[in-house]
Structure formats: structure tokens, C-alpha cells
Write a structure and sequence with these properties.
This protein is α/β, with parallel strands linked by helices. 38% of the residues lie in helices and 24% in strands. It starts with a strand and ends with a helix. Keywords: Membrane, Transmembrane, Transmembrane helix.
């Protein structure tokens, strides 16, 4: 399984900080995953065609090998379209994780999860599509802090698959990501 990281429009150092903060608190199984970072910067983060070409270059004939997209901010725009295109050419998208993809409609025939820097972003983004298991920071944090230091952001995992009322669990954004990856490793 490969994890494809699609950053937003920001300095590349923030993405390296995200990966370090996430991996520092991770399980050993995550270390075995093939983590690939889309190198496009600026407006290229919005281009599904550039992301798709990058995936084809990096993964070659491994279309059936499952991938998980983790995207941030403006990068969610290009990543969700690239995920659809990857499936159209025969690729397998195991899951799509949007971190602060506010205002981006998210639909697909693969599991989708949203991670938001505050409750308002969580609530208003869900109107444009989300999965059953999502996360929002509480207390609210700065948009870039969520990407730079997911291990420092505390909040709520919301699992709306529960019949009566949504299950809420307090944890860090990094821990939430680990739970998602572990779930898809086992499927």
C-alpha cells in the first residue's frame, strides 16, 4: 500500500514537518508504508493531471496496489480529482483523507474522511460530502498548525456510523490518522 501526500500552497518545509510529526508518534507498521509526496508547488497543487502523471511515473504498473490519498487545503482540489482519475484508469483508491479541504466537494466510491482545524470547518465542509469517520480540532487551531504539527492538535473523532448518536473520541490529529491507516492496512 502507498500513501500519497498532496500538500497545499505553502512552503515545502511545512509538509516535511507534517510527515515528521505524524511519523514520530506512529506505529511501526506505518514506517513500512510507501509514503510519496507530490512535489508540485503553487498552482500545481490544484492540477489533477499533474498529480495523476506523478502517480503514473512513481507507481508505474502498480495500478492494483492500493493507495491512500492524504491531502491538505488547496491540495484537496487536485487530489480528489486525481483519485477519481486514478480509479478510471484501473487504480485502487483505498481511502481519501482531506485535511482542511474547506469548500471542496468530496464524493467518490471510496471511503472519505475529513480532518478540520475547527468545528465550523468540520460542520460546513460536511455539507459538501464527508465520510462517517472524521476529526475536528477542539480547541480550534490555526489552519497551518494542523498541517505543521498534527501531533500537537487535540480534538474529536466523530464516528457517525453509530445508529443512535455519533460516537466522539478525544485524541490528536496524528492519532486519528494512525487509526485510519491501521484500519485500511487490515482491509
Amino acid at each position: 500500500m502507498s500513501i500519497i501526500i498532496c500538500p497545499g500552497i505553502h512552503e515545502p518545509a511545512l509538509t516535511q514537518s507534517f510527515i515528521s510529526g505524524w511519523l514520530d508518534s506512529s506505529s511501526q507498521s506505518l514506517m513500512r508504508q510507501n509514503i510519496i509526496v507530490f512535489p508540485g508547488q503553487g498552482l500545481l497543487t490544484l492540477s489533477s493531471l499533474h498529480i495523476l502523471q506523478f502517480l503514473r511515473d512513481r507507481l508505474g504498473n502498480k495500478l492494483k496496489s492500493p493507495i491512500i490519498f492524504i491531502s491538505f487545503s488547496a491540495g484537496v482540489v487536485g487530489a480528489i480529482a486525481a483519485a477519481w482519475q486514478w480509479q478510471l484508469i484501473g487504480g485502487q483508491v483505498k481511502a481519501f483523507i482531506a485535511i482542511d479541504g474547506w469548500g471542496v466537494p468530496l464524493w467518490g466510491n471510496f471511503p472519505i474522511h475529513r480532518i478540520s482545524h475547527d468545528y465550523f470547518t468540520h460542520w460546513s465542509s460536511a455539507l459538501l460530502g464527508s465520510g462517517q469517520n472524521n476529526f475536528y480540532a477542539q480547541p480550534a487551531v490555526d489552519h497551518l498548525l494542523l498541517w505543521r504539527s498534527p501531533q500537537k492538535v487535540k480534538g474529536w473523532q466523530i464516528d457517525s456510523s453509530v445508529d443512535i448518536s455519533p460516537l466522539q473520541v478525544r485524541l490528536s490529529a496524528s492519532e486519528f490518522l494512525h487509526l485510519l491507516i491501521k484500519r485500511y492496512e487490515q482491509k
